[in-house]
């Protein structure tokens, strides 16, 4: 680890912290229906959309109607994207004449982009047309991100209101998230990416002659526009298979800095939005500290693990002073590769600028564990916020049991119904991750896809279902996931991780919104101070550890000790 490396990490995280408040306050104004700088430009467009869709913006929905609208919208999105994938050979902007996508891969990809997972069991530059990339994948990058934000805002209103039967209007929230947040910022980011050298063209490819005289086909396309929303919407589905390790997606240090900032900006900004909308900015900053401390701690561990190097390679004569550079780009180095790996798995982005399969065992364990915590530190756009709220509910309940305090959060009494729904949501992830991993670990057709055996092979299985159920999308690339088993089962895990999680959360929000606010008393546990921050971090880590420590012990932990002993499986 070097001083320059720490300065690079500190610069990027400092930019995230500096922009969180203005971005968060802006989003609070947008979702409160207040006037913003973009209102004169986009206000009439917003009203036209409502008129075309027959939406009455002043008509609000209860939790069940809000959730049902989201599910219907998502089902329609899945059907449309699946159709594009299956029919892409007959659609325009296909200069390289790509064939239709097979049914199991089309199912997986459509579910993936619908749920903000963006898992890539395909190679974009060799299988997806420009039309599919633009009208299919990029459009759903916007819509899945906007859906997550809409759900988070609905949960936020549950604490901002009292004796309320409604949580807002899903159609209004998703429209405002798309028009006022993701479109304008993605446009600015895309232009900046183009300036750094990221391609933006409808050309399918160019031919080049190598130094040896051979012909090489270099894939091109509308990369910058997809890259912008891929990062800002914490989607992660890259134009190229190598994702942000590809020089056309991430050409230099400036582009890399912008990518990491973009994937962290909205999740941290939404924590400020939460505090503003519930009338307690201190509460928002408490959640900000929780997410920030876990994120920084994870960066420290991964940076240290990767800087230590690999004793197995040292034994073969490799100089260990450069650390573990296997699978990493020399233009980014260990520091920014470690920060990117943590940032992308602490959110639901899943983009990578280094190959996770080549990380040291502990370097791969930490990103996996961050996803197993529920992607809440700070989490994906929207999903991170309502995931943190779930753990806040569990924390005040545990705190109340420990010290005899009344379980309250932001003036709302937390009773058995809310705790049961929060626990139900939390149990979805281990059900999907450990359940599918257990079956895949003994099924011959699943094991045939592994690139490694022993503990690292188990890590590949565990990481795949962790990433899918956590709606992240990154992967240990040693696993060949493009088979019917992996396409179908990871697709089911994505559905459970998104909709199986959020439905009980929305039911919980509906119950909380109907409660009246009560004044804090001597028996109320303060939730905006350092004590609560420490308690909630402990609850998050302990709950995650209890659920997944046995599986992690058999995978990356065993591999770590074997590596230290100079042995392989």
């Amino acid at each position: 680890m070097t001083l320059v490396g720490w300065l690079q990490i500190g610069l990027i995280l400092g930019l995230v912290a500096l922009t969180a408040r203005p971005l968060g306050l802006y989003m609070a104004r947008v979702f409160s229906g207040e006037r913003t700088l973009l209102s004169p430009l986009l206000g009439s467009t917003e009203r036209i959309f409502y008129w075309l869709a027959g939406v009455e913006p002043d008509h609000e929905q209860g939790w069940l109607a809000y959730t049902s609208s989201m599910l219907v919208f998502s089902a329609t999105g899945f059907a449309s994207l699946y159709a594009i994938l299956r029919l892409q050979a007959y659609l325009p902007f296909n200069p390289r004449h790509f064939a239709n996508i097979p049914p199991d891969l089309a199912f997986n990809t459509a579910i993936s982009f619908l749920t903000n997972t963006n898992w890539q069991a395909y190679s974009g530059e060799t299988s997806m047309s420009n039309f599919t990339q633009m009208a299919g994948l990029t459009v759903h990058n916007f819509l899945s991100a906007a859906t997550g934000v809409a759900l988070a805002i609905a949960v936020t209103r549950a604490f901002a209101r009292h004796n309320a039967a409604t949580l807002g209007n899903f159609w209004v929230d998703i429209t405002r998230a798309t028009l006022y947040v993701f479109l304008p910022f993605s446009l600015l980011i895309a232009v900046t990416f183009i300036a750094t050298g990221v391609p933006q063209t409808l050309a399918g490819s160019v031919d080049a002659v190598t130094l040896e005289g051979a012909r090489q086909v270099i894939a091109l396309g509308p990369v910058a526009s997809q890259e912008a929303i891929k990062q800002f919407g914490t989607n992660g589905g890259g134009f190229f298979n190598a994702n942000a390790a590809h020089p056309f997606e991430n050409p230099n240090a400036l582009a890399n800095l912008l990518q990491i900032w973009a994937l962290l900006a909205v999740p941290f900004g939404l924590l400020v939005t939460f505090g503003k909308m519930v009338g307690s900015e201190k509460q928002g900053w408490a959640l900000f500290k929780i997410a920030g401390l876990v994120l920084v701690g994870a960066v420290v561990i991964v940076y240290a693990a990767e800087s230590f190097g690999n004793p197995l390679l040292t034994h073969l004569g490799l100089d260990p002073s450069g650390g573990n550079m296997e699978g990493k780009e020399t233009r980014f180095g260990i520091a920014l590769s470690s920060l990117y790996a943590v940032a992308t798995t602490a959110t639901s982005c899943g983009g990578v600028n280094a190959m996770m399969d080549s990380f040291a065992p502990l370097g791969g364990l930490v990103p996996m564990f961050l996803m197993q915590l529920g992607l809440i530190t700070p989490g994906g756009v929207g999903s991170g916020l309502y995931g943190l709220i779930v753990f806040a509910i569990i924390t005040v309940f545990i705190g109340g049991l420990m010290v005899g305090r009344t379980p309250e959060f932001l003036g709302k009494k937390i009773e058995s119904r809310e705790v049961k729904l929060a626990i139900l949501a939390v149990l979805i992830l281990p059900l999907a991750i450990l359940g599918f991993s257990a079956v895949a670990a003994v099924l011959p057709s699943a094991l045939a896809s592994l690139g490694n055996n022993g503990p690292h092979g188990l890590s590949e299985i565990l990481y795949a279902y962790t990433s899918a159920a956590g709606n992240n999308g990154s992967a240990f690339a040693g696993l060949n996931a493009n088979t019917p088993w992996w396409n179908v089962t990871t697709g089911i895990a994505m559905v459970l991780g998104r909709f199986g999680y959020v439905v009980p959360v929305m039911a919980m929000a509906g119950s909380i919104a109907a409660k009246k606010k009560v004044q804090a008393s001597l028996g109320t546990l303060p939730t905006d101070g350092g004590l609560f921050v420490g308690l909630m971090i402990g609850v998050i880590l302990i709950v995650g550890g209890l659920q997944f420590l046995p599986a992690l012990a058999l995978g990356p932990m065993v591999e770590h000790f074997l590596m230290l002993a100079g042995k392989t499986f």
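The CA atoms of residues 133 and 308 lie 39 Å apart. Strands lie at 205-209, 215-219, 408-409, 412-413.
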